[in-house]
């Protein structure tokens, strides 16, 4: 069973970044009726931080992103090992440094718990490049042997001795993730979330996205690079002279090639090239028959509940019971319920897999496993991976080794590292401030729902019931306690997540979290019309740097959450400020109001400098809109923003037509 491993550290670091980066208006709010100014060091530092970011040659009503981030972008240099730099990135780097200072301390067998010792040893072993280079690619060769060999390299490989069930069983026994053809995971039951259920899902793919895999090899550079990665990997494993030559001369130019030729410069037996091309085509066929992104929003079509017996009846050419048990090591029966995600993909597999030679399937599965291990080998394979990543993302150099190793620890030992980080960095267990913010945001959304004029009474009551039933896990496990500044702008994050419960995806779940249509037809139609306004608005955002438009359909859920969440946060913040008995002094250097500071603080969170390769990928893959349009899109829909900055109607940030749902 391929359950998601704990990701405590990831969520914890994201939470940490949010609350550190958003040290904003509660501390430095401004009341224009008072002339007294704050002269503390913290106030001066915050004022200097704002001054270093603002481009005051641009008015906030014309281009708020440029106004808030212009000077910061101009003065920021993207590090050579990164495709982009943002305020989040800068804070994440600090977190990595703090993590490193913890796990590089000496191992104390008398004090350190077993998991602590393992974490520190893992990090040290990752740093030990001498040992890694001395081992060469021997660890990978042993792994391939454990998998039963790689047919493309093994002249003795016999198709009669291998079945698909055998392959899945080996992967499970070794402990490798097995999602190359289909994935079996554990999810909450969509109709009854009090218990879990097995889900049969489509494959993941070797490229970053399903849509990348279905492109034409001869016309797409990302697919060409992927194919060359396949060929160079097999060449290093099959041609020992070539491998030793690369180890000796330390010169690597794996991805310098003529786009027209694709693979002509790679000296490999044509039969091997043909087999690897067949592997690529096999993966492309899988991708082409999986669900498109734009089709996976309707959960009533996406989730298909049935027993394993019914699954085998629908797909009789695949032994699903045996396959699921091989993947999970459970003793499921024919009566076990499963959720089939993308039922058309399962039907496709039923006729495709039995008619595909096992040699092709094995070559493909082994390739996908090998690809995940390249970066853990010696400097030859590491250079191959680094050049591949650089060609895709545009970064000139790889991350420093210690940064790579921190990422490896985070991926493989996340829960242990999270425990260590919290114990070493925090001393307080007070979540009262955050919980107070949650209640304030929920209260504001309750008022919003009550005043909404496009919902019928019953749907509105159900929405209010759903809001009241929401429970929050504030970014880290309950047993991990944090003492940290919490600024008012953390409100927006909570508001964003609350609003997700009422976007096009989340609205399909009822107040108890069950997948159920609880919307009146007329109200649902109104929601779709309002959502389409958001889609149309963001579809118009054009990035001249890469000659691409934002995909308003693929980003609409995040855009709805952004627009609704910021509005909730703003109203909750203003209410909190108005209820304070004490007045707060002005910041040095500026005369911004509390409302203006709210928007400036929100804007500064979005400051980012990104290279064109990464910007293109963000537009193609990220469910979030690129930051420039993400910020300007939100503020241009906000009447509060227009009032705070006195933007004339018809200016870019205060258009006559606004899109508003919540």
UniProtKB/TrEMBL annotation:
Residues 60-477 form the Peptidase M13 N-terminal domain. Keywords: Hydrolase, Metal-binding, Metalloprotease, Protease, Signal, Zinc. Residues 493-661 form the Peptidase M13 C-terminal domain. PROSITE patterns: NEPRILYSIN. Its cofactor is Zn(2+). GO terms for cellular component: plasma membrane. Pfam families: Peptidase_M13, Peptidase_M13_N. GO terms for molecular function: metal ion binding; metalloendopeptidase activity. Residues 1-29 form the signal peptide. GO terms for biological process: protein processing. The keyword Metal-binding applies. Belongs to the peptidase M13 family. PANTHER family: FI17812P1-RELATED, ZINC METALLOPROTEASE FAMILY M13 NEPRILYSIN-RELATED. This is Uncharacterized protein. It comes from Blomia tropicalis (Mite).
């Amino acid at each position: 069973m391929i359950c998601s491993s704990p990701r405590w550290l990831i969520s914890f670091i994201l939470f940490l970044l949010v609350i550190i980066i958003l040290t904003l208006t509660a501390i430095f709010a401004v009341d224009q009726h008072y002339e007294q100014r704050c002269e503390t060091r913290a106030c001066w530092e915050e004022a200097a931080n704002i001054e270093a970011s603002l481009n005051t040659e641009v008015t906030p009503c014309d281009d708020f992103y440029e106004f808030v981030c212009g000077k910061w972008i101009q003065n920021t240099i993207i590090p050579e090992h990164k495709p982009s730099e943002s305020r989040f990135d800068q804070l994440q780097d600090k977190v990595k440094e703090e993590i490193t200072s913890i796990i590089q301390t000496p191992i104390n067998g008398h004090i350190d718990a077993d998991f602590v010792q393992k974490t520190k040893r893992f990090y040290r072993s990752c740093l030990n490049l001498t040992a890694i280079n001395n081992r060469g690619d021997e660890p990978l060769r042993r792994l391939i042997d454990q998998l039963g060999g790689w047919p493309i390299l093994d002249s003795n490989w016999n198709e009669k001795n291998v079945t698909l069930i055998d392959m899945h069983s080996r992967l499970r026994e070794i402990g490798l993730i097995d999602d190359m053809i289909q994935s079996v995971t554990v999810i909450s039951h969509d109709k009854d979330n009090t218990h879990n259920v097995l889900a049969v899902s489509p494959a993941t793919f070797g490229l970053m996205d399903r849509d990348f895999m279905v492109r034409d090899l001869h016309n797409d550079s990302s697919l060409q690079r992927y194919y060359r990665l396949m060929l160079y990997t097999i060449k290093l494993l099959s041609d020992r002279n070539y491998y030793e030559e690369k180890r000796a001369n330390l010169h690597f130019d794996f991805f310098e090639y003529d786009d027209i030729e694709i693979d002509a410069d790679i000296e490999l037996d044509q039969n091997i090239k043909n087999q690897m091309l067949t592997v690529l085509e096999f993966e492309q066929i899988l991708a082409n028959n999986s669900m498109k992104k734009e089709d996976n929003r309707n959960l009533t079509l996406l989730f298909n509940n049935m027993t394993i017996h019914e699954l085998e009846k629908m797909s009789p050419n695949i032994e699903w019971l045996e396959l699921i048990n091989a993947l999970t090591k459970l003793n499921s029966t024919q009566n076990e319920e499963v959720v089939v995600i993308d039922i058309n993909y399962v039907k496709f597999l039923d006729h495709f897999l039995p008619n595909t030679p096992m040699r092709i399937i094995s070559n493909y599965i082994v390739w996908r496993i090998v690809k995940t291990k390249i970066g853990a080998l010696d400097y030859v394979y590491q250079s191959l991976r680094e050049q591949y990543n650089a060609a895709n993302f545009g970064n000139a150099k790889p991350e420093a080794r210690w940064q790579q190793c921190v990422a490896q620890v985070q991926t493989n030992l996340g829960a242990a590292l999270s425990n260590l980080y919290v114990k070493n960095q925090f001393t307080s267990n007070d979540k009262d401030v955050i919980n107070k913010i949650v209640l304030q945001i929920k209260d504001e959304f309750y008022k919003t729902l009550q005043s909404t004029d496009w919902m019928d009474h019953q749907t509105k009551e159900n929405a209010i019931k759903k809001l009241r039933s929401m429970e929050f896990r504030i970014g880290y496990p309950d047993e991990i306690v944090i003492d940290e500044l919490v600024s008012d702008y953390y409100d927006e994050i909570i508001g964003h997540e609350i609003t997700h419960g009422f976007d096009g995806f989340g609205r399909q779940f009822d107040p108890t979290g069950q997948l159920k249509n609880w919307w009146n037809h007329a109200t649902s139609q109104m929601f779709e019309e309002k959502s389409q306004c958001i889609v149309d608005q963001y579809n118009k955002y054009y990035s001249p740097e890469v000659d691409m438009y934002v995909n308003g359909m693929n980003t609409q859920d995040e855009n709805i959450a952004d627009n609704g969440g910021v509005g909730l946060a703003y109203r909750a913040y203003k209410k909190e400020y108005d209820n304070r008995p004490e007045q707060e002094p002005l910041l040095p250097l500026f005369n911004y109001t509390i409302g203006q500071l709210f928007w400036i603080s929100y804007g500064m969170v979005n400051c980012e400098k990104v290279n064109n390769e990464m910007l293109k990928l963000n537009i193609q893959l990220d469910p979030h809109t690129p930051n420039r349009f993400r910020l300007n899109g939100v503020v241009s829909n906000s009447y509060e923003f227009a009032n705070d900055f006195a933007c004339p109607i018809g200016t870019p940030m205060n258009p006559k037509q606004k899109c508003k749902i919540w």
